[in-house]
Amino acid sequence: MATQSLEQIYNSIAPYYADGDGINDYYTLPIIKHFCPPSATSALEVCCGVGRIAVEIAKSVETVWGIDLSREMICRAKSKAEMASNKPVFAQGDVLAFDFGDQKFDYIYGVYLVTYFQIDALIQKLTPLLRKDGRLVIIDGTHGPGVPGAMRSGLRDMFRQSADYTKFMQRYGLSASTWEWFVHQLKRRALLSSPGWKQVEQWKREQGSNTNSKIWTEELISILPNVKIEQITSRLACAMWDRT
Fold it and tell me: Could you give the number of structural domains in the chain?
């Protein structure tokens, strides 16, 4: 058994996410914003953390929800949204058990969340929440606990990933800097080596049921045959599915 629950672990590292410069958001926010349907009036972020992305999405989407298991993350998300002209609705809880009532969404997205769920259970929960013509986007690493070499990344590999990320962004007309991406990779590498994050990795390994025991994109394709998968880099993938 894990010495701490996942909520307790993330409660303890929430101050780092709140005070940091949004290391993960640097990679993912432009992509999440780009793939948001132009006509979307409602959006849901799963595992929203301290709410940076949700606050940005709320600048162009009327109703935005964010849900996260960590009470401390949600507290900081609400604090970040205090000055926003359109405040997202932030809720604390397990998305699989959360009752959204009659609320439906045009856009549902999540970043670095797959390893916390059984992918089939996650999809079964989220797809009914999508309105017709709604879109689901998931961005996550293709390497995780249980995948050999998940935490090993040399400088040469990091430069290669930086170049791949820049090419992906340019393909969609988005600005990107190979050097800036590399610098953020170094910062993220420091995060992944921190004691707090090591507790997260330990939790994942101890659960033994997270989907990254194999490549999650392969499992997602078997559940949603029409899902579109793109490799942003060799270690980061984007999945997009439109409900018709």
Answer: 1
